[in-house]
Amino acid sequence: MHTPSRVPVPTRILGRTGESVSVIGLGGFHLGRPDLAEPESIRIIRTAIDNGITFLDNCWDYNNGLSEIRMGKALRGGYRDRVFLMTKIDGRDRRSAADQIDESLRRLQTDRIDLLQFHEIIHDTDPERIFDSGGALEAAIEARSEGKIRYIGFTGHKSPSIHAKMLATAGRHHFRFDTVQMPLNVMDAHFSSFEQHILPVLLRKGIGVLGMKPLGDRVILDSGAVTPIECLHYAMTLPTSVVITGCDSMQVLEQALTAARTFHPMTPDQTASLLARTAPFAATGTYELYKTTHKHDGTYRNPQWLG
Questions:
Q1: Strand 55-56 relative to strand 24-26: parallel, antiparallel, unpaired?
Q2: DSSP character at residue 115
Q3: DSSP letter string, 9-21
């Protein structure tokens, strides 16, 4: 790595959990892609940890489990104890959720997951299914009581209104999530915006903010309006606990580390200038297909994962 290792990756506190985590998190999806060789995937994970990235993202359904399997192998040899490990499940009922939690534990080769999140809260029925009697929340709470998981959150990329419904449903059931994950980037600021509609709610409630898709799976870069470092710095300037970014090569990992190590909060003028540049590209969601299409909706294509 060419980035000066003596410059530490900044850390932040994860909401009310009090946990200290790296400002950049390593996304799990890209690590299990079939065109990425397993030894290189393991090398990326361990190099990230060795260079100060402590927050690891994953999911039960990423690449048919390969992402978790590879991460489990990478975390051998003492690496597990150096990270805050997060994964996600798709099950909406108690049985499927419990089965997926246990499978993730086996793949990740660990006896505890630091943060478990309900994945892809993108369907209008998801909140009630999870919180209903016999729903997935029961499995998560039981797993937490057994020491299998420590914290509980949810993720989604489709609509701020569905996030709002999930938070309202939790409130009616007197449950408070520890974290919420959502797209936070230079395009989201203008279109069906999680930044505008959900971020303030999370901050008021002390819920840890996990930003994802800072580069929109690199699609945002196709606009030509912004650079990768600008995208990452924008997301880090927001009151995020972690900005999760996918790294499928050592070069992309180095880019993320450089962004973290050179980070200074953007000034209001810098932010305004960046948003002015991106506004013309953002109006129709062209660069946020996860909001406007089913391209990124794994549970839409595989409803059996929901249980």
A1: parallel
A2: E
A3: PPEEE-GGG--EE
Nearest 10 degrees: Cα torsion 290, 291, 297, 300: -160
Give the separation between CA 81 and CA 101, rounded to whole angstroms: 19
The residue from 62, 151, 287, 290 that is catalytic is 62
Q: List pLDDT tens digits, range 26-48.
A: 999 999 999 999 999 999 999 99
pLDDT given for residue 2 in this prediction: 47
Annotated active-site residue 62? The verdict is yes
What is the C-alpha to C-alpha distance for residues 225 and 215, in angstroms, rounded to an integer?
12
222-233 burial: b if 16+ Cβ within 10 Å, else e: ebebbebebbbb
Which residue, 66, 107, 61, is CA-closest to 85?
107
pTM of the model: 0.95
- Residue 201: both structure tokens together: 């709610």
Kindly give the pairing relationship between strand 20-22 and strand 11-13.
antiparallel
Measured between alpha carbons, how far is 93 from 253 in angstroms, rounded to an integer? 36
Mean pLDDT score across all residues of the chain: 95
Helices 38-50 and 66-74 cross at an angle (nearest 10°) of 50
Half-sphere exposure of 265 (CA within 13 A, CB side): 6
pLDDT digits 0-9 by tens, 71-104: 999 999 999 999 999 999 999 999 999 999 999 9
